Amino acid sequence: MAGQSQGSNARLLDKVSVLGSQIAGGGAQAALPVVAVDREQIDATGATNGNELFRSLPQFGDVAVTEKGTTNAGRNSNVARGDVGSINLRNLGAKYTLLLINGRRTVQHPISNSGDDTTYNANAIPTFGLERVNLLLDGAASIYGSDAVAGVVDLVTPSNLPSGGGIKLNYGKVADGHREDISLDGYFGSDFAQGRGNISALYGVSKRTAQRNSDAWFTATDGRRPLGDGTSVPDPDGTSGFSTRTPWGHFDTYAGSRRTGSWHVDPASGALVSGAVPTRYHYDSAAEPGITSAPSINKGNVFASGRFDATDNLQLFGELAYYRASSESWVSSESGFGGDGFLLHIRPDAYWVPDALRGADAIRLLNYQFADSGIRKVKVDNDQSRVLLGVRGWTDGGWNWESALLYSRARSTDTQQGGLTDAFIAAVNRTDAGAYNPFSGGDPASIRLGDATPYDTAAFIGEATREGTTELALWDFKINRSDLFTWYAGDIGLAAGVEYRYESREDDRDENIDGSRPYTDWYTGTVAASNFFTHSPRPDVRGSRNVKSALIELAVPLVSPTQGIPLVQSLDLQLAGRWEDYSDAGKVAKPKLAAAWKVNGSLLLRGSVSGGFRAPGLELVNSPPTYGFGFNNDAIRCHALITKGAQPDYSACLNAYSSGSSVKPSVSAVTSYGDDVKPETTRQSSWGAVFEPQFLPDSLGSISLSVDAWRVQVENPINTLGEELLYDAYLRVVEGSSNPNVVRAEVTAEDAALFAGSGLAPAGVVTHVYNRYQNRRPLTASGVDYNFTWRLRETAWGNFAFLLSVSQLKQYTQQKPAEVQQVAAAIANGQLNIIAPDLGAANEVGINGAKPEWRASATLIWNLQDWTVRLRDDYIDSVTAGAFSDRRPFVVGSTQRWALSVKKDFNTGRLTGTAVEVGARNLFNEEPPLNATGSYLSALHETYGRYVHLDISKNW
Predict the structure, then answer these.
(1) pLDDT digits (tens, 9 = 90+) for 499-515
(2) What domains sit in the chain, N to C, each tagged with a CATH number?
(3) What is the reported pLDDT for 17?
(4) Taking every annotated instance into account, which residue ranges of this chain make up the domain TonB-dependent receptor plug (predicted)?
């Protein structure tokens, strides 16, 4: 921005702020492991939104909530979609990271992926013009309150901009894909009242086109086959990876409660044939033209700040911000799997029922792909607003004080096209030619795609809308003084404050999903709470809480340089404590102790210990039991089939059965939150060193090296067991009992035949699984952060800055429940013929497609007069995801993605203040590595290839 040269930017990299302390000045600030990512580094990432920015910083972990992970995989609104990205320090999970804007809280995103998986929206921040992003890599609950367990992210926007402004036009495009970006960003500043006041603002509008499945081979088809060397190839004519749904139908005939036959349409003849649907008829939904892997997004953002000096000792200040984004995705044509929670029965007298089926009492439709419905639109509108009014002052006695009122609200409206069950049953059971015909099959010329004889689906394809709203209202009052009194080692500083905040969350589901419009199956009388195809029912949720808190902090010097103590140039302590009173979670007080020991002018040692606290999310606390339907692998059935020799191994068994079968039944998962669940308590510690050699000659530049080890323990994390069916298999095989949380139907003759010869008592088909949120055994994570900076200034060849940031996650250990340990032991010793990779792993680093051990970034910035070149490399370590048939873990390789940009500033004539920049992300057009099923890991990797961009800016 105006008033700062490129040279000065390079010299100010990694400038540390006072994030983590309320006391201005003082040696105790050196105890805080704070990393500042300034504007030059932000520009070097080439990021176009907050999601891309945070992905590129090694201190951040997996991005569980992302615009890419929720379009094709998330075909219903039970996940956050649209212009959204989560923020996850330390890989502990987004719920443990606190986000601040200019030192104060902001509102959370209103849609979560589950009851306790809440996040802030990284894409709601204006990345253009950010002054810096400060990362406090230490527990800070004793300073900022709950959520600050893994650390704090503070977004610092520019203020007091000099009168003038700037504008920037950006165009970017993926070299081999449909994604295009165009944006217009700007800023302005204006003084008024003879310089006593100032208004500064950032603004931007952008338009992004969607990325399509067809843009990359690994998203263009569901058919992908892993090879023995760990790579994958497209396999559109293969047998694995495809949905079990098909337009060729799966029709079961019934007489009373007895199934009398199973039928499907033969593509060659168009006639009904009996028997199971062959795998080669399964639909390739990813290949439907127009499907998107990332949405199109239109977005606008404005952030304004102002201040006015009422007197020499009194200042008014404020912020006003608004963000709005509208996204559009396209998902596959509708499908109906007809499971126990979504029974679809056709009457025998319906118009299009073939003569061979008319003698049945009912025809059950299973795993049907409505290929004639066409691809379906998902539209998500997000908005977020923020208003802050404050006053700060300085007393003649040396006290600084500040108070502010803040209100912030976020809203998300998710609207999706899909099938309405009652309307479909009415349409398919008509007795005239206007009835919908599911017996016409697909396209014989393209068995796995399309429909050559489409019928009108308009009668039952409708829309379902989910609207979420979150609010944050906050008032605080803070005082601080860096020299409360003086003792032998220097000034003792004090900060204190009080805060009151109100938080609310409302989740309003569509009437077809929240139980207001249930569907009753005409044949069995079964009532389904959800009337929307393949969408589990979810209740409306509303909840709020009030939080009162008080803070006190001391900065205490123990040794000062004037004392002349060998090897102790200075020693400073930070002592802090925070008390909080939750209206729904009780009271808590947590302390913090941090120390900074400056050995000499070049070496600093630092460390801290603290306690933390996190109340369960409002959605989790206020939600009644929820019912989710999905296909689950019933491990005991595959164990029985392998034991008696009917299947060679576990992988082959799962591949041999389709979803909806007794091996992969449709299961109602009932999730509940008990009154005995307690808030989470945590312990954090960190220790490290900073080495900045002062003895180097200026010709070698300046060097800074820091190493900080950290450890976080969540003493009683809130979660579900998650392995109820595996535990049921263990009990049946090893102990001859069963899991009461797994509910099964009565044993049938088919069940008895499947288990015959296995030596096991037959088990009925699974109908329900009960999952209960409870406080689980401790979770411990630890790691090391490395940061290296080298700067060489004002040479004949220009200014140089090299920055290396490395984050190592050494441990992520969730002490396994006894039930899971028993299952893992039984698999390991051969008692259970089941493959469950890493089930009993003590350390989860780098397994299950998540939490890589190493992340790193290296940035080189060269500036000479009007030219600036930035080169950056982002590295993500390998992980395992899945297993080969011989149980060897499948390794998803490491990645390196390079970014390069070249910028020219014009400082003479009419072009003064103009700059032109060209650059590329993923410079070498690398593809993401794939897992054992040939899918990319959206939480770790991006899918697009080389992305080139052109920026033209003008400052005045």
Answers:
(1) 999 999 999 999 999 99
(2) 6-214+293-305+327-331+379-416+467-507+542-616+677-717+776-815+846-955 (2.40.170.20)
(3) 38
(4) 32-152
